[in-house]
Amino acid sequence: MAKDLKKQPRPKAETPKGFRDYFGADVTERKQMLDRIAEIYHRHGFEPLETSAVETVEALGKFLPDVDRPNAGVFAWQEAEVPGGGPGDWLALRYDLTAPLARVAAQFRNDLPSPYRRYAMGPVWRNEKPGPGRFRQFYQCDADTVGSASVAADAEICAMLAAALEHAGIRRGDYLIRINNRKVLNGILEVMLPEPSDQAVDARGQEIDKAIIKALRVVTERAISSDDVLRVIDKFDKVGEEGVRQLLTTGRKDESGAFIEGVGLLQEQVAPVLAFLTSKGADNTQTLANLRAAVGTSAIGAEGVDELEQIAAMLAAMGVGEDCAVIDPSIVRGLGYYTGPVFEAELTFEILDEKGRKRQFGSVAGGGRYDGLVERFTGQKVPATGVSIGVDRLLAALRAKGLMGGSDQGPVVVTVMDRDRMAEYQAMAAELRAAGIRAEVYLGNPKNFGNQLKYADKRNAPVAIIQGTDEAQRGVVQVKDLILGARIAAEASHEEWKAQPAQTEVPRDQLVAEVRRILG
Amino acid sequence: MAKDLKKQPRPKAETPKGFRDYFGADVTERKQMLDRIAEIYHRHGFEPLETSAVETVEALGKFLPDVDRPNAGVFAWQEAEVPGGGPGDWLALRYDLTAPLARVAAQFRNDLPSPYRRYAMGPVWRNEKPGPGRFRQFYQCDADTVGSASVAADAEICAMLAAALEHAGIRRGDYLIRINNRKVLNGILEVMLPEPSDQAVDARGQEIDKAIIKALRVVTERAISSDDVLRVIDKFDKVGEEGVRQLLTTGRKDESGAFIEGVGLLQEQVAPVLAFLTSKGADNTQTLANLRAAVGTSAIGAEGVDELEQIAAMLAAMGVGEDCAVIDPSIVRGLGYYTGPVFEAELTFEILDEKGRKRQFGSVAGGGRYDGLVERFTGQKVPATGVSIGVDRLLAALRAKGLMGGSDQGPVVVTVMDRDRMAEYQAMAAELRAAGIRAEVYLGNPKNFGNQLKYADKRNAPVAIIQGTDEAQRGVVQVKDLILGARIAAEASHEEWKAQPAQTEVPRDQLVAEVRRILG
Questions:
Q1: Contact B137/A53, CB-based, under 8 Å?
Q2: Does the CB of A89 have a partner CB in chain B at under 8 Å?
Q3: Cβ pair B515, B463 in contact under 8 A
Q4: Which of A109, A138, A318 should one mutate to test binding to chain B, selecting the residue with the greatest count of B CBs within 10 A?
Q5: First to last CA, chain A
Q6: Which residue from B174, B64, B51, B61 is spatially nearest to B121, judged by alpha carbons?
Q7: Are A437 and A313 in a shared domain?
Q8: Is residue A506 part of a domain?
Q9: CATH number at residue A487
Q10: Given A238, A242, A324, B507, which residue has the most CB atoms within 10 angstroms?
Q11: B104 and B220, same structural domain?
Q12: Distance between alpha carbon A508 and the CA centroid of its chain, in Å?
């Protein structure tokens, strides 16, 4: 038996598939960015909330334990049997920060202020097939207001998002928050189905019998979901006005010659959609006027336009200009999930992709108003609105703009020439730290001095301190400027290199002053 | 079917058993404390490492998948079957921060600097029965040096721990780091089994035959583990010198009269243990001399004492006095796990427990040197040393000393008297924020003004801003000092209260200045 144990293969030292480790600057730079964002959230009256990573599958909701293992999309496991009771609960890792907020808002509804403004930052887990750049654990950074039906809450979130992006380092002009309203689109869908008129024509332009129109209306009302229309609207950028018209009615041949079936609307129903799609004007006032025309007599549409108008006015009052946040009807992505205002923040500068081509950086945050958050638990509708910042994408953007990095300089490395004088080397490091300078003593085997300098290089050390027996007796230390040294090694001739101008001898009591001088 | 779905009971809004949520100051105060500690770790050349929460059960090691579900102590689950392959991996949530460090040190051994100094802060998970104050997710905060056999690494960790505690807010004199060495104890165990002499006596003081002594030696060497001895040593505080002597030899009657069996050592074997236990002197020099005497001729014991002597010298060189860190042979807890120096930080001030009784706060951090960290993966021994700070305990200590809290003041609340002028209220909040003041607009239903003040109270707001139509027309705002107001309400007469000195009317453009005056 003991033999068998010994024969067991060694465990593999591997991060599980789809997971990753963050080292050094990866950790500090993300932290630095999130700290900046949290500062803005806090100043806007938002309170931090940190829920546990684990929730009951029941509370998470989307994933019910009606199969053997409810792990479609989440990491889930069943608790051990309750002694004397039934089977244990199914538990799971949270897949976002909104589901736990819903649980908290219901569980603590009598204790929390209402409205409840909260922000949350932390990892979430998705049980998905990992791929390049797709991880099964990643960070989210959310801010939500629960319990306010006022669009003032939406406007505040947009203004706060602008402030957060700027405080994180994105310059004004390098981002744009686009705002739309699901209600406007509902209004458009409403006016797409007007009372039948005498002038109705079919898809081929021929006049149709009133009875047929009525029948068609029934059919379209039943069979055409707003999702079908949304899908076409989403293609506007690609296929243009005429393409959208074809796709909404009888269909369209794409570039490859393949025929894409139409949604089946009548020509007269398409006009409001096109009016909506082309409603973006030179400024908010013009866009709002165009939208008002597009929604026509729809009450819900008019309400949506009113809300956008209020949001625009509030943003202006809060000092957020149209160069930062603007009404834009083209924002439709994920709209189906939302019930009112929606918004998306894009970074407008260009970066080079992995193939060296210029491309727009694109979306880094999005959000909007949603219902049914707490309703699942309590049966009462609780209006809510919120935003989620894509942590990895925003960090990548800041790095692409050179706004991150460099902050994490390596420590000054005190080398060890004489093992017996370790305490003295540690005293040097302690003195440097007391002066606020990051410093460490080399703690590997000191025999090979070359290894010590290689170590200093790997640590990205700006300075190395050297004191052998001779220097100790003379009361001096050698201070080696490694950054200058590397430059000289790369550029200088052998003779210049030998002159070693990057290394200075100073009296022991001037160690800190000399290091400070080199670090600038 | 649809009916069945509707009839489903609502999910319970509950944190899973043994888990908890952290709100507001709970989050910010812990963060503030960890930030202070991280600053010190960073200055000592330690690099942050953030591993994923999920590890393979194989890499975690302690929990092998030889049963149906290897969830003894950990939260574990099996991945879905690999298509065309065998069963999926068992994954688990990390139960500490050391096991992931071992995996990382092995996985990235060619890329990481050696020695590798790293710190890690984050939640860990234990699948244990929850109890009062015992949670299944909690924070750990570790710093370790991997790959250095030098006691300079241990000394550095102790000095860094002192600096971290002080930077977190614990004053010098309020903590003490006690340092011991497992090798000294090994030396003691060695000298407990000396070459048999002619003078050996048995437990009753009678002379024993040499052959019997030899036989006994074999028996004791086999049957008496160092753990047995350690367990007795751990009772020294309680039972004293004579009690330890009895427990190590023939046994002892405790206070209740019950007989506790002895470990079975001979009288002559007990002396080194007692010498060890009473070796703490007035200062390190004396303690070290006593220890040297106690370990006698044991080579490993002498090595242990030498190491402690070096550590003491290095701490002195780094400016860490004996009032901060001291050699103390009484630190034995968990010693079995360690292979060299061990240390424990205690807070020495008294606090009142839940029953109002004074008690010492006790241990907040501990650590030491250990082997076999990377060996499991690579077969190569890698020496390591590290410390773990008890995050919850240290935070509780800082709160008990009044060193936390108060930092999280509520926002200034701008009330809403006139729903149509929401944009103006938002402009006020924006102005306050631009001046660095935390501020928010009331976003609930503004109909009932009393509710708005109740909300401000719940938000811990220091100031409320009020502007009705009348004030707006006159270009003024009311600024209500809620802290002063609460004091007046508690202390003043009805007449004084009616005079409302806590509320001031100021011109609109002096809003920020007035709020600033009140906040001081």
A1: yes
A2: yes
A3: yes
A4: A318
A5: 64
A6: B51
A7: no
A8: yes
A9: 3.40.50.800
A10: A324
A11: no
A12: 50
Helix (H) or strand (E) holding A391: helix A391-400
Q: Are strands A137-146 and A116-125 parallel, antiparallel or unpaired?
A: antiparallel
What does the alpha-carbon distance between residue A430 and residue A410 come to, in Å, rounded to a whole number? 16
Chain A contact for B82, CB < 8 A?
Answer: no
B322 shares its domain with B450: no
Give the position of tokens 């300078």. Answer: A437
Q: How does strand B325-327 pair with strand B175-181?
A: parallel
Residue in chain B closest to A138 (alpha carbons) equals: B52
Domain boundary, last residue among B275, B304, B326: B275
Contact between A93 and A125 under an 8 Å Cβ cutoff? The reply is: yes
Chain A residues in contact with B147 by the CB 8 A cut-off are 444
Structural domain range at position A430 = 412-519
Q: What is the mean pLDDT of each run of 10 residues along chain B (520 residues)?
A: 55 93 94 96 97 93 50 82 78 93 95 96 91 88 96 97 96 95 88 56 50 50 65 83 90 87 83 88 96 93 97 96 94 72 92 79 91 84 94 91 77 95 96 96 93 93 96 96 83 64 91 95
Q: Which of residues 238-277 of A touch B (CB under 8 A)?
A: none
Question: Same domain, yes or no, for B299 and B269?
Answer: no
pLDDT of residue B359: 80
Q: What is the pLDDT of residue B9?
A: 78
Q: If 0-12 CB within 10 Å is exposed, 13-18 middle and 19+ buried, where does residue A26 land?
A: middle
Q: How far apart are CA B189 and CA B179, in angstroms?
A: 19
Closest CA to B462 of B434, B478, B484: B484
Of the candidates B48, B153, B424, which has its C-beta nearest A443's C-beta? B153
* pLDDT for B395: 93
Answer for the pair A224, A265: CB distance below 8 angstroms, yes or no. Answer: yes
Q: Are residues B461 and B490 in the same domain?
A: yes
Tokens representing B172 are 């010098």
Candidates A49, A54, A424: best to mutate against B (most CBs of B within 10 A) is: A54
Residue A307 has phi, psi (to 5 degrees) of -60, -45
Q: How many domains does chain B have?
A: 3
A138 within some domain: yes
Residue B224: which of B212, B235, B232, B236 has the closest Cα?
B232
Distance CA B78, CA B55 (A): 12
* Interface check A519 vs B, CB under 8 A: no
Return the residue matching tokens 């229309």.
Answer: A229
- Assess contact for B147 and B377: CB atoms under 8 A: no
Burial class for B167, CB neighbours closer than 10 Å (0-12, 13-18, 19+): middle
CATH of the domain at A38: 3.30.930.10
B137: which strand partners? B125
Which amino acid, one-letter code, is at B46? Answer: F
Q: Specify the 3-state DSSP secondary structure of A486.
A: helix
What are the backbone angles phi and psi of residue B40, rounded to the nearest 5°? Answer: -70, -45
Residue B352 resides in a domain: yes
- CB-based contact B398:B170 (threshold 8 Å): yes
Residue B39, CB-side half-sphere exposure with 13 Å CA sphere = 14
Strand partners of residue A21: none
Binning chain A into helix, strand and coil, the percentages to the nearest 5 are 40, 20, 35
Name the residue type at position B357. Answer: R
**What is the pLDDT at residue B167?**
96
Q: Is residue A384 part of a domain?
A: yes
Tokens of B362: 């006790």
Angle in degrees, CA A83, A86, A92, rounded to 5: 95
Q: Residue A15 above 60 pLDDT?
A: yes
- The upper half-sphere exposure of residue B274, i.e. CA atoms within 13 Å in the direction of its Cβ, equals 17
* Whether residue B287 sits in one domain with residue B334: yes
Q: Are residues A292 and A387 in the same domain?
A: yes
Backbone angles phi, psi at B276, to 5 degrees: -65, -45
Residues B319 and B234 in one domain: no
State the CB neighbour count (10 A cutoff) for residue A369: 25
CA B340 and chain centroid, separation: 22
